[in-house]
C-alpha cells in the first residue's frame, strides 16, 4: 500500500463515502488510490467549483467529512469561492490537492504553486504531507480540524507513491463541546430581564432539536426568535418553530433589531451588515443592548449549540416540545403572471414533503422564506453563506448525492446559475433528483439595486449588471447538458412544471420568467 | 472627482480602453467611475475567469494594460487560475478589486477576505489603497509593475468614494531594458563553438522581429531554433522562420534536446518538465551542455529579448531578413473521418489570413502546430501558459475584443471548454468574431494518458476522466448562449463549417467529433 492509498483508507474509515474530484497529472497517485478504495464513490465535477460546492452540500447534509480531490494551484484556486462559503458555514470539507514531486518543486514548472498559501485565506486548517508514512496521520488531522470548516492537504506526488507500513489511521471530526454553565445562566438572565429580547440563531441551533429547544425558551421567556440571514442549514415547515429571518437589506435588518434590549447568540455570530454604509454602524445590535454569547458560530468554535439551548430551556423552566400552534395548511396556490410574489408562493406551494431546498435566489427569492413557513417539513440551505455567488447548483448537486432518497429543489438566480452551469452535467451523469428553478430576471439585480441607491445606474454599470442581449436560453443550456427542462411564465405553469419534475426521477430544470416590479 | 474616478482616469491615460468586469456591492464606486470615464469600454464576463482570461488575451495582443474589475475575495478567487496563466505569460493585466470599507473590515462580514493574500500567489505585484488621494499613484504603480505579469490592487469602498484634488497620474508599463553586452558575446561564443547548439525562444523572441533576428542567427551559426512548449504568443506562417516546438510529452522533449552541446535562452526559461517523473531529471538540457541566458523570460525580468537577438545577429555576422526558403503553399486539404491528424490538417487548411489562433486543444491539437507552419501568416497563442485549463474561451474572447479587425480561431478541448463555457455568452453579447472548434474526444485524455502510463486506468479514474454519459451537446450549449453552431464528423464537414463561420461576422462554434486512435 502506498501513501495515497493510506490517505484514502483513512478518509473512508472516517465516513467519507464520496469524493468530488477533478484530476490532473499531480493527482495520478490519488486516482490510483481511489481505484483501490471502492468504498469511496468518485463523482466528477467538470469545474472545481462544482467539486467544492458539492462537497459543501454533502457536508452540510451528512455532517461527515466531505472529500474533494483537486489539481494543484489553479485547480484549487477554481474551488476557493465555494470553500469560502463552506468556511463561513463551518462545513467539514477536506480538500486533497496533488502537488509537484518534492524534488521537482525547485524547477518551478508551469503548474508549481504554493498550495498552502493559496488555500490559507479560505480554510480552517492547511497541511502539507512531508512523508508517505505520515500521510494517514496528516489526513486524520485534516478531518479532525474540518469540524470548524474546510481543511486542505497538499500531497506531493512522489511521497504519495511511496510504500507505507500502516494501512491508515483512525480519524473523526473533533467533537462539539458543552458550553460553560455561566453562559447558560447569563443568557437566561438576559432573556428574563424584561424588555425586548432576541434569541439569535445560527449553526446547529437551526437543527430540529435546536429549534424545538429555542421554541421552548421563547414560550417561557417571551423572547423573539430570529435566525441569521444566510443559514447554512435550517429545518423548516410543518410544526417546527419558525424564527424570523434577519433581512438582507440594511434598513430592514436594522429595523427588525432596533428596539431590542438584549440579544443572545446561539450558534451564530453577532449580526453585521454585509457591507459598510457611510454613517451607519457595522452591526445591527443597538448600542446599549445586552449582547450575550450562549454558543458561538461553527466557523469560530466547537460550542455545542443544541446542548446549550436545551440547558437554557431547562434553566428558564421550559420543556422542549413541538409547537402547539400548528399552521392551518399548505401555502395557497397563486395565479397570474410570475412576479417575485407569485413566484415565491408558487414554489412554496409545489415543493414536496421532506424536500431539501437550496436557495440562491437573492432578490427574486426574498419572499420565498416567508411563503414556505407553511410548507411541509423540509430542510433549507441558503447557498451563499459567505456571499460568494455561483454556489447553488453545486450545493444542490452535493446534497442530492448525500441524500438520494430526498427530492432537492434549487431556487437559483440567473446570474448565479451562469457561474456554475457545469453542475447540471454532473446532475445528469449521476441522475440526481434535483429540480432547479431559474429566476430569470435578466440581471444582477441585487448589485444594480446597490448602484442605483448609491449613485444611479449609468450606461457602463447598466451594461455590466444586465444579463440580456442575449438572455441565456436556460432550457437549451440544460437540455444540452443532459437535463430535461421546461419554461414557465405564469404561476400555474410554474406549479405544473415543478410537480411534473418532482414526479419523475432525475434532474430537471424550469426557467421561470419573472417580471420585474413596474415592468 | 473621487478616488475611484482618479484611478480609472489613470488607467485610461495609460492606454486601457477596455475593462473586463464582474461587479459586486464593494465595487459600486468603481461602477460609478466607469460610468464617468467613457474612454473605458465595459465588457461583462458572467464568471470572473472570463474576465481575467479575456484580460490575458487583450494584454497578450495589445501590450497595453489589460484592466479587470472583480468582486472582493471570492470574485478574485474565481479569476485566479487565469491570472496564473497570465503570470506565466508575463501579461500586463491589472486587476482592481473592490474591498470592504476600511472601518467595516473589523466586523468580518461574510465577504470579508484578505485580498492581497488571495492575490499574492498569482500576481507579480499586489497593492492596497490606503487613501483616496493616493489611489491614482497606486494604480500607476500597479500598471508599471504589470510589465512582469498581473498586478492586483485592492480598493476599499469608502476611500474610493472620497473626493480627491488630483485628476489622475501618469502611468506606463515599465520599459524593457537592453541586456548586458557580455551576455550577447557569450551567447555568440556558445552558438559558434561547434557541436549542436539550440537557441531556445520564448516571450518577445517569438514576435515577428524576434523571429527574423533568430532566423538570421540560425543561418549564420547553424544553430537550431526551438520554442517553448506553451508560448504566450508566437507569430507564425507565411515566410517567417518556424522554430520547432518543444514537445509536451517528457520523452519527446528529452529526445529533442538529448544531443545538444549548448542552449541559449532568449525570452525563455530553461526548459523543464511539467511534472516530475521518478528517476528522470527535472530539466531537459543535458548535463554538461553549455547553458547561457541571452535574455530572461518576461515573468522573471524586463530583458528586451528582441533587442538582444538583433544584437546577437549583428555579432554573429548575420543581417536580419525574411527567410528565403518560402514554403510551397497552403496546407493540404485532408479528407475522411476526423482523427487527430485529419483534424489538425483540416483546421490549418481552413484558417483565414491574419488570424489569431488560440490553442487549448492539448491532446487533440498536438498535430496542429506542425500542420499550420505552412498556413498564411497568423498569430498563435497557446492558452495554458501556466498549465491551468479552461483558459481558451476567455483568452479568445479578450483577443477578439482587442483586435476587432482580425478573425479569431479557437481550437478547444472539450474538457477545457466546459470549464468556462460562459465566455460564449460574452462573445455573443459583444458580437465578437471568434470561431471556436471543440475537439470532442469525450474526456480529459491528457490526464488519462498519464494515469494509464503510471498505474493503469481503473473504474474510479475512468469515471473521473471521461466526459461521457452524457456527452455535452456543444451545438446546443452554444446556441442557448447566443452563438450559432454546427457539427462536423469528417474533415470535409469541418473545413466547410469553418469557412462558413469565418465568412459571417460574429461568434460561431463547430463541434468536431474526433475518433480516438483505435476507436
Automatic annotation (TrEMBL), chains A, B:
InterPro entries named in the record: THDP-binding, Thiamin_PyroP_enz_TPP-bd_dom, TPP_enz, TPP_enzyme_TPP-bd
Pfam families recorded: TPP_enzyme_C, TPP_enzyme_N
Domain called Thiamine pyrophosphate enzyme N-terminal TPP-binding: residue spans: 1-106
Organism: Actinomadura graeca
Family: Belongs to the TPP enzyme family.
NCBIfam families membership: PRK07586.1
Gene3D superfamilies, A to Z: 3.40.50.970
Sorted UniProt keywords: Thiamine pyrophosphate
Protein name: Acetolactate synthase large subunit
Stretches for region Disordered: 317-338
Domain Thiamine pyrophosphate enzyme TPP-binding: 370-511
